[in-house]
Amino acid sequence: MLFQVGGQGTRPTFFEMAAAQQLPASLRAALTYSIGVMALRRPFLHKVLDYEDEFFSLLMLVLETHSLRTTDASFAESLYGLRRRAVKIRVKKDDARPNSGGGIQQSGLEKRQRILSVVFLVVLPYFKSKLHSIYNKEREARLQASLWGNSDVTVEDAEYFRGGRLLFSEGMSFAYQLLYLLDATGFYSLGLHALGIHVCRATGQELMDTSSRISKIRSNERERLRGPPWLKTFQGALLSCAYTVLDYAQTGLIAAVFIFKMMEWWYQSAEERMSAPTVYPPPPPPPAPKVAKEGIPLPPDRTICPLCSQKRANPSVVTVSGFVFCYACIFKYVSQYKRCPVTLMPVDVDQIRRLFHDM
């Protein structure tokens, strides 16, 4: 299975390299989610989740070793039609400048580079994940201790040291990716630079020869079997089963990534729809309070104060009833009678509010 992102020439685009780099994380998330769902009915699978780092690292160790051996590329890079090439800079003797006539010579990976590639792809991420888990546990313990006042080292100190290391790591990664994007370097990451490896697009002939190369490697492994005929037959059958399982595992893992991404998009869209605030129409205004029989009648003109029968000056509202009067009129009335003059509802002077709609 092969995916093409675009671009021309042998140099992969930035997006191809970024997609290949992010694929293992998506694969791990897909496997974790799938095993978590199956563990609901098969409780023994919770043990796999308890050793998630070890399980995933062992799986990636098998996949990366097989992929580097057969295609000279990591598992993710091979899916995008990429290949790793050892880089050697050749410089003319009469001129020490690399661009004066020399060039970059690319060749197949050496055995040492394949082993170190597995270390950078599997071993180092495993230790990074374990250190991250240890740090989180230690941080939680320090946080609890600091809350109880039993710790001399504050959480801010631990965050400062971790932030410095994280800043260096992320800064180096960003610098290499930026230089790669600007075509200032052929190395996408510090690890590839340390190994002296360029990632290039595979030619059409290389892609066609991949299957034959894998078949040749597997036939050579069968020829190396030693022992009686029955033992060689048994060992060959085991190798065939292992290769079949490996092929199906590669296809299944890619399918799991796509299914996980599709479900993630589906549930994210559903959550966004559920979490989006529902816009309801504004409620209708409450009905006007009834005028008491003993209360002061309302004038036909709404701009007239019911108390002084004059045009309102400094209009003020009684909050319990909503009727508007002159401020001086209603303040004097409420101070004396402690009620609304229209509805006769109990009112205090603190419940009079000045209206500023005329300002």
UniProtKB/TrEMBL annotation:
InterPro entries: PEX12, Pex_N, Znf_RING/FYVE/PHD. It is found in: Peroxisome membrane. Gene3D superfamilies: Zinc/RING finger domain, C3HC4 (zinc finger). It is a multi-pass membrane protein. The keyword Membrane applies. Pfam families: Pex2_Pex12. GO terms for cellular component: peroxisomal importomer complex; peroxisomal membrane. One of its GO terms (biological process) is protein monoubiquitination. Component of a retrotranslocation channel required for peroxisome organization by mediating export of the PEX5 receptor from peroxisomes to the cytosol, thereby promoting PEX5 recycling. The retrotranslocation channel is composed of PEX2, PEX10 and PEX12; each subunit contributing transmembrane segments that coassemble into an open channel that specifically allows the passage of PEX5 through the peroxisomal membrane. PEX12 also regulates PEX5 recycling by activating the E3 ubiquitin-protein ligase activity of PEX10. This is Peroxisome biogenesis protein 12. It comes from Dovyalis caffra.
